[in-house]
Amino acid sequence: MRKIILFAITFMAITLNAQIEKPIEMPYYDYPMVQKDHYETVAQYCLICHSFGYILNQGKRSRPYWTGTVKKMVDEFKAPIPKEEQQVIINYLVKYYGDDK
Amino acid sequence: MTQSSRRKFLGLGLTMTAVGLFGKNNKNEIIADNAQFAPPMIAFPQKKPLKTISDRPPLLESPRDLFTQTITPNDQFFVRWHMPDIPTFIDLSTFKLQVKGNVNTPLSLSLDDLKSKFEPVEITSVLQCGGNSRSFYTSPTHGVQWGHGAMGCAIWRGVRLKDLLNKAGVKESSTWIGVNGLEKPALDVTPKFVREIPIDEALKDNIIVAYSMNGEDLPYLNGFPLRLVIPGHFSDSWVKMLSEITVLNKYKNTFFMDVAYTVPNNDCECIVPGSDVEYKRKPIAEMKVKSVIGYPTPNTVIKKGSKVLVQGVAFDEGHGIKEVMISLDKGKTWVATKLESDSGKYSFRKWVYEWPAKTKGDFTIMVRAINRIGRIQPMADEIGWNAGGYQYNAVDSVNVKIV
């Protein structure tokens, strides 16, 4: 009887900890970002730190908003985006995710 | 159909479903309207499928209908990380929590050390992201556009932060502690996610280093093996995968203290919506009294003659909830709901109201909580605005139809 209980306890312990015995696998999702001219530039820089989910979650936004957001990525988070490419990214976001303001 | 076009097709399907569910002219359905993209439901490790706003870093939102329960289950508890590089494996035989800096004896503690050498304590507490509910601000804000699902309530078990600090021996000159975990930015130049807590606060009784959540190991994505628990405070300093506690004799300026998670440093903690003037900032800290309707959910169709058990949760910064009132006439009259048993001053307090659905038509259910020191939720059109969209706590409202 004691053996059975011991076995049950060991088994439970293994089951409870099963998920941390080996690395977890994180799912990947292909967020449906518009793919037009200059998409590669947007993908190259934005995806270094975060998924396109971050962008789609914002919905349509103004030019000052997208400009400020790209500036924040560069100034605060130190995203290595050259000046020219920053403008390409801002224009892309305004064109496909802008609210005409 | 290629993989990618199939994905797009699925995405479109989800969007169309969202429009179908919420309707096009429902102006109260701000989330659908604002985001215009319905995130996929994905099951991450140890989690049921949750609304996946982002997969990297993971941003997973809990469904509103969980807020009919005092305790939020681990497998549906929301997830929010700041950095893309989260270790996918923690080896407990080598994992250590370091307590260092301005102390007499630096400590390096294994999970077993924490469990065996310190007194275990338990507290039931709400964990709420500072940006929870920000999509309900009518003027747009920065940040992840959460609905109400960036919060939950759990029973946390662990050791007092105070006990760790006392064991290490905090030197007289200490003024702050810095805390950080194992998440890492993609680039070395990106500021690390470090938070700072004033030393007198860190030495209070109720801050704990938790190793258990609702009786289980912390789920990986909620910070396994250790996270800081600061009852009554927004979760920005509830550091996950906690690995370092550094006692400081001087405050260190960091992005995540001085810029992120801040509100205007004035009485209303607000500015004119949309203005981007520079202002003095202060970090968000204590939570604001709040209640959320768990049932019915928006756009529920109810059969006339049913008895509807309207229910939800309320909480505050730790004074306790005095009353939750409900209005079914757009705020003209309010009546008290019934508060269920109290699980502690930092816990969700469940409330229930029995509503006989007598008349056909469209109805708006509104709830408003008041705490024991008389703080009351603002109405949605009265709440002060801040650019980061933090601390939203206006009266919740849900539209339903009786047929």
Give a written overview of the molecule.
The complex is a heterodimer of chains A (101) and B (403). Chain A has 101 residues and is mostly helical. Chain A has helices at residues 2-17, 39-49, 53-56, 63-75, 83-97. The longest helix of chain A is centred in the first third of the chain and has 16 residues, at 2-17. Residues 1-19 of chain A have low confidence and may be disordered. Chain B is mainly beta and 403 residues long. Chain B folds into three domains: 3-66, no CATH class; 97-283, Oxidoreductase, molybdopterin-binding domain (Sulfite Oxidase, Chain A, domain 2); 290-402, Sandwich (Immunoglobulin-like). In chain B, a hairpin with a 5-residue loop joins strand 5 (97-101) and strand 6 (107-109). The longest helix of chain B has 20 residues, at 3-22. Classes of the chains: A mainly alpha (101), B mainly beta (403). Chains A and B meet through helix 3 and helix 4 of A and helix 1, strand 2 and strand 12 of B.
Highlighted features:
heterodimer; A: 101 residues; mainly alpha; Cytochrome Bc1 Complex, Chain D, domain 2; 5 helices; globular; B: 403 residues; mainly beta; Sulfite Oxidase, Chain A, domain 2; Immunoglobulin-like; 3 domains; five-stranded mixed beta sheet; five-stranded antiparallel beta sheet; 6 helices; 25 strands
Topology:
The complex is a heterodimer of chains A (101) and B (403).
Chain A: H1 2-17, H2 39-49, H3 53-56, H4 63-75, H5 83-97
Helix pairs in contact in A: 4-5
Chain B: H1 3-22, H2 30-35, E1 41-43, E2 49-55, E3 58-61, E4 79-80, E5 97-101, E6 107-109, H3 111-117, E7 120-128, E8 151-160, H4 161-168, E9 176-181, E10 194-198, H5 199-202, E11 208-213, E12 216-217, E13 227-229, E14 242-248, H6 255-258, E15 262-264, E16 281-283, E17 290-295, E18 301-302, E19 307-315, E20 321-327, E21 335-336, E22 338-339, E23 349-356, E24 361-371, E25 396-402
Parallel strand pairs in B: 5-14, 18-25
Antiparallel strand pairs in B: 1-2, 2-3, 3-4, 5-6, 7-8, 8-11, 9-10, 9-14, 11-12, 11-13, 15-16, 17-19, 19-23, 20-21, 20-24, 22-23, 24-25
